[in-house]
Amino acid sequence: MTTSVREREPVRLAGVGRRYGARGPWVLRGVDLHLAAGRLVRATGANGTGKSTLLRLVAGVDAPAEGRITGRPARTAYVPERFPPALPFTALGYLVHLGRLQGLGRAAARARAGEWLERFGAGAYAGTALAGLSKGSAQKVAVAQALLAAPGLLVLDEAWTGLDAGARAELDRAVRERVAAGATVVFVDHDPRRLAGEADTTLRVEGGRVRAEAHPAGPAPVRIVASGDRPLPDRLPGGAVPAATGEGTLFRVDAAASDDLLRVLLDAAWHVHRVESGRAGERA
Ligand SMILES: Nc1ncnc2c1ncn2[C@@H]1O[C@H](COP(=O)(O)OP(=O)(O)OP(=O)(O)O)[C@@H](O)[C@H]1O
Asked: Where would I find the ABC transporter domain in this sequence (predicted)?
């Protein structure tokens, strides 16, 4: 998927609260957060503490009862815990429809929909009615709809659940690509190994409050954009993961491993376009 790396304002939550019903108990209250561009954000907390509520608010599919949320990019995508398959579309027809709603032309929507179905191993189901899809295939369509228009904010609520191992790995890759391209990705997953060690921030949801824990010493403070035709080793220095962008391939790597990675790229006759330190969206 091609999207350029660019910076944008963070999504800001200021004094956000949510309760269900005018007199219901507050599920979340006094939530103040900055979710910067180019960050991977994990939300954690015990069952029923309000993680899904928080994700729906961040995605904009639910509105806060008090407080404000600003800076949400125009292209925001969301995968809910449960995907509604009872719509009169085929898998491809649904994706093209949503792609068009997200601003893509018909031909581009068709092409992207086909590409994402293939990437998730669901190309064979393009012509199947949504209602006729297995749970796993329906989940692939749910994930594909979120990735279609290269969102600047991607919100994933247990989106890996129901996917087969290949599709789960593909979704991991797609998340890394979006983050590398400058998107904010916020996710919840019951498996603590999901993208373990890769999140820039953990949101701990507890007792109606959300505490943001940044991982400043976490991975990837250096971003290298390069291009080349020759294959690279499977294991790159610092565990760097290549991600396709409009400008070439982007690698996020720890500063300690960046020289080694540059050497590997140059040895493979890759052209290095840019080396940046600091995360996208970080203020000087
Ligand atoms: N639409 C709703 N109407 C009424 N109450 C709701 C609604 N959605 C969530 N709640 C309540 O809000 C609280 C938080 O729910 P939420 O689903 O956000 O938590 P969660 O941390 O995502 O839970 P889980 O880990 O079980 O998915 C729960 O008490 C839940 O019953």
From this structure: 11-232
- Total count of residues recorded for the chain: 284
**Where are the domains positioned within the chain?**
7-75+151-218, 85-149, 222-277
Of 40, 68, 78, the C-alpha closest to 218 is 40
Q: Whole-angstrom Cα distance, residue 93 to residue 99?
A: 10
220, pLDDT greater than 80? no
Domain 7-75+151-218 CATH (choose: 3.90.226.10, 3.40.50.11750, 3.40.50.300, 3.10.20.340): 3.40.50.300
Q: How far apart are CA 29 and CA 184, in angstroms?
A: 23
Rounded to the nearest angstrom, the distance between the alpha carbon of 228 and the centre of ligand 1 is 47
For 27-49, the pLDDT digits (tens) are 999 999 999 988 999 999 999 99
Residues 267, 271, 275: CA angle, nearest 5 degrees: 100
Ligand 1 nearest-atom number relative to CA 53: 18
Q: pLDDT band at 278, cuts 50/70/90?
A: low
- Do the interacting molecules here have an ipTM over 0.95? yes
Residue with CA closest to ligand 1 atom 8: 53
Q: Name which residue sits closest to atom 16 of ligand 1, judged by CA.
A: 50
Order of strands, edge to edge, in the sheet holding 66-70? 26-35, 11-19, 66-70
- Give rounded-to-5 percent helix, strand, coil for the chain: 30, 30, 40
How are beta strands 209-214 and 241-245 bridged, if at all? unpaired
